[in-house]
Amino acid sequence: MNYKSILAGVLLALGLGTAVSAADVKVGFVYVGPIGDGGWTYEHDKGRLAVEKHFGDRVETIYQESVPEGADSERVMTTMAMQGADLIFTTSFGYMDPTINVAKKFPNVRFEHATGYKRSDNVSTYSARFYEGRAIQGHIAGKMTKTNKIGYIASFPIPEVIRGINSAYIHAKKVNPDVEFNIIWAYTWFDPAKEADAAKALIDQGADVVLQHTDSTAPQAAAKEAGNVITFGQASDMGEYAPMPRVSSIIDDWGPYYVARTQAVLDGSWKSVETWDGIGPGMVGIGEISDAVPAEVKAEALAMRDAIANGTYHPFTGPLKKQDGSDWLAAGETSDDGTLLGMNFYVEGITAEVPQ
Amino acid sequence: MVVFGIDLVLLIPALMISATPVLLAAIGEAIVEKSGVLNLGVEGMMIIGAVIGFIIAVNTQIPIYGFLCAAIAGALLSIIFAVLTQFMMSNQVATGLGLTMVGLGLSALIGKPYEGIKSPTLTKFEIPFLSDIPILGPMFFSHDAIVYLSILVVAVVALIVNKTRWGLVLRAVGENQEAAHALGYKVVRIRFIAIMFGGAMAGLGGAYISLARVPQWTEGMTAGAGWIALALVVFASWKPWRVLIGAYLFGGITVLQLNLQAIGVAIPVEILSMSPYLVTIVVLVGISLFGHHTAPGSLARPFHASQ
Fold it and tell me: Which of A65, A184, A187 sits opposite B262 (nearest CB)?
């Protein structure tokens, strides 16, 4: 084969490469874990599939799994943008700065960053009010614990995670003044072996409720192994562990949002926005409360869910004090979103310290 | 026995369970590297072992079959690496990385129907008499068979490498492949066997994660354990007993720091979280300061009899 025919082949390949994408819009997704994690990434991928189903041939989706937070994610986003993606969803907190950086280089590509707070002309942010679900978990946990020790597997000390701890604690404490929170920071979103080890450590230390803010179902498996421990599905229903240990769950439903934003790109009406929806609009779902929960506790939990959904109850309602004893919210006062979005303190009663 | 609010009777078994996957994978890789081959596919072979072990254990309801098949699957996958690097002279680093990617992808594919299923658990094997000793019994003598097996493997490997003719030949091939070849040893054949042993051990280690440590199948569940094993081999200066020390230190401190967090000890979480890595490296490097320890002379160098 001579030089000219190789060149011709390359040109042909390039030509074909550009000709294949017949879809009107190409949407990219960057995932922090594998799509089969059974939790966070699994739900985002369900959202992606919802987009494919809704638009059919008009939209093409691409995704990349297990992308480390940090510099590596910039490379992945850049590759997606160069492959012709029109809209890119970056689905983990640690992609915040990389998203902003890459967005600067590709002003015609729209980016959507999950759970972050930095926006620009072509970067939107979106998140769900997971803390609303945490309030319900806290209530059930406080009512059901016998050892009064609740274990919490946290991932990274970012506002979203701290908010969840506070929300669960406030509502557990409200129904059970003796309750105590043992918090483990795993410093990972996805590492089943470590998550299982953390769950076991908490159980060994006497916790009979394990809440998790990591992405895999490993803590559920560890709790099941241990026996009399209850857990809650995180990000996804994790229904395969119901009725015990999983007694309920927080389910993230990204599908409608992803469809709406893709539609906006198709219409040309896409604008940089900030979205933070909860149980009411349906972005946060509460998974079925299993029969392991006493009927009256279940009824209270459902009542709380409905009150949060219709706006009559806010999980962060005063009187509340910060951990250092200073006043935060007066009686009846509810927290503004700004404080919640930047939350870097525990509420009064939690004995641990927030890692800085 | 409670020390600083931590019950050692619970901690020691948890530590041993946590260390076993990495220990198995690392002792296998140590032999591979001793023979002069660098196989970066440990993570891939582990996850294949994890998924195959899980599938077989679920279908037969006999965990030991799962472990057996996981070892075979790991070895089979390593044969791809062995054929490519030993016969077709491909680059070992690139081939090993490729093996990891193949393993991760393939396991995700074949493991799909097994997500969210519970596996049969491994029964604890109580050593007669010894397990009846108060405190020490439940701490050291009532584990599952694989924990004992992993320690036994280290002992046997140490014995073979240091005290037998086989070990001498293996080291000769790894230290100076041309000289070993000139002496009439079958360099490629010996390396082939070493690579398969490494694959089998990695597979076994992976299955221990999915059948004992977690126990369930989740895509990508080894989450870097293979890379920890690779690092351990280097920090342990390719010595079997040091691999064991390293694995137990790493696994032990990981579990210990999680327990310390759980009881809310007043040490910053950042320091606790980095402690497994820090302590393991410091201790193993500290040990290596005494004596002469370098990598096998022919590590990662391709060999062909015609050269």
Answer: A184
